[in-house]
Amino acid sequence: MSVAFVKEPNEDQVEVLPERELGQDPNIVTVRGLALIDGEIAELARRLDAARAADDKVAMATINRDLRYFRARRATSQVAEPRADLETVQFGSLVTIERDDGREQRFRIVGIDEADPADGLVSFVSPLARSLVGREVGDTVKAGNGEAEIVAIGNEPAKA
């Protein structure tokens, strides 16, 4: 019987994994973000060597997919840092907002792969970042379900 009619894969077959979505937005990154991508590529290459040594085909397939993603992200990276002489929010800015309830929060606007909202890093394509870009201290912006006032803008580059 042909293998095409057998439901169980043989030991050499690995299910094809879907590619990771690269998105349609430009791949703007900070210097720190570029370093993170480079670090991820190096770590994935190390893990791929270990998976090859263990002959772990599933791990190799997963790691190879992730390597394709990060290598494509690296190839399309456009490094941008905020201009220190501007008084408006821009890519890379560190922005402090005060919410309706009096809470102050600080966010740095970064690239997609660098985003970590829990750590105060928001992607430039996020709704919050889009409402902040181009605004100045004293402006009120939409922030979640409420509003927030921009109370400070730092346009110094982040440390790598």
TrEMBL record:
SUPFAM superfamilies, per the entry: FKBP-like (SSF54534)
Source species, domain of life: Bacteria
GO molecular function list: DNA binding; RNA polymerase binding; translation elongation factor activity
Keyword Iron belongs to the record: no
Classification via Gene3D superfamilies: Transcription elongation factor, GreA/GreB, C-terminal domain
Pfam families, per the entry: GreA_GreB
Keyword presence, Ligase: no
Domain Transcription elongation factor GreA/GreB C-terminal span(s) in chain numbering: 87-144
Keyword annotations: Elongation factor, Protein biosynthesis
GO BP term, example: DNA-templated transcription elongation
UniProt protein name: Transcription elongation factor GreA
Source organism (scientific name): Plantimonas leprariae
Gene that encodes the chain: greA
